[in-house]
């Protein structure tokens, strides 16, 4: 590169640097003038007592917890209140209520049959939901919600993916309805 081309490139770079510096300084001065106008229009909030309340934290520190004997991490109801006019009656041991175990959601489709490919792969279950038919192999997911675990001759074992709960769906015969038996 000749010395003349180097001088031209240097001049062009200086012009670009000057333009960037000018734009930066112009934005900076306009931004600072804008903050002055905001600071001039600022109004304080009206507070009745602006003093620091030092007694509040001290009062909270001296507070003593008086519980009713109930475990807040348990679903067992608290014991009955012990008042002056309350007759507890004969002494009986407290009855501990155990919560019902969570139940798996039933399949929203009807399990109406099964089959297998002769090559020895997993069994496939056939489901229907009105007009739609779903064919799902063991280990696959049905409706993005249920994993088919085992396809038996008379039932189907499945697992709800979100909760990990397991359930069983019976094989339903086509055409059998409660109104047909009457």
N-to-C span: 103 Å
| Assigned CATH class of the domain at 110-177 | Mainly Beta
CATH topology of the domain at 110-177: SH3 type barrels
Percent of residues in helices: 25-40%
**Strand order, biggest sheet?**
4-5-6-7
* Major β-sheet annotation: 4 strands, antiparallel
Structural class: alpha+beta
What is the approximate shape? Answer: flat
Radius of gyration equals 39 Å
Number of strands: 7
Q: Helix-strand pattern, N to C?
A: HHEEEEEEE
Average of the residue pLDDT scores: 81
Beta-strand share of residues: 15-25%
Discrete helix count: 2
Low-confidence stretches: 178-182
CATH architecture of the domain at 110-177: Roll
What report would you give on this structure?
The strands form 2 sheets. The protein has a 4-stranded antiparallel beta sheet with strand order 4-5-6-7, with no helix packed on it. Among the domains are: 38 residues; 68 residues, Roll (SH3 type barrels), CATH 2.30.30. The chain contains 2 helices and 7 strands. It has 182 residues and is of the alpha+beta class. The chain is flat and about 90 Å long.
């Amino acid at each position: 590169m000749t010395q003349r081309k180097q001088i031209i490139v240097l001049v062009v770079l200086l012009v670009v640097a000057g333009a960037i510096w000018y734009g930066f300084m112009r934005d900076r001065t306009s931004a600072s003038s804008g903050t002055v106008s905001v600071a001039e229009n600022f109004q304080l909030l009206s507070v009745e007592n602006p003093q620091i309340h030092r007694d509040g934290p001290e009062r909270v520190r001296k507070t003593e917890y008086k519980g009713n004997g109930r475990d807040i991490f348990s679903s067992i109801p608290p014991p009955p209140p012990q008042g002056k006019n309350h007759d507890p009656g004969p002494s009986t041991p407290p009855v501990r209520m155990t919560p019902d175990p969570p139940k798996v959601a039933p399949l929203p489709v009807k399990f109406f049959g099964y089959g297998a490919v002769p090559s020895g792969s997993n069994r496939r279950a056939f489901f229907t939901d009105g007009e739609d038919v779903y064919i799902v192999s063991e280990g696959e997911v049905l409706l993005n919600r249920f994993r088919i675990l085992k396809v038996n001759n008379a039932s189907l074992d499945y697992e709800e993916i979100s909760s990990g709960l397991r359930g069983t769906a019976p094989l339903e015969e086509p055409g059998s309805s409660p109104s047909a038996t009457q």
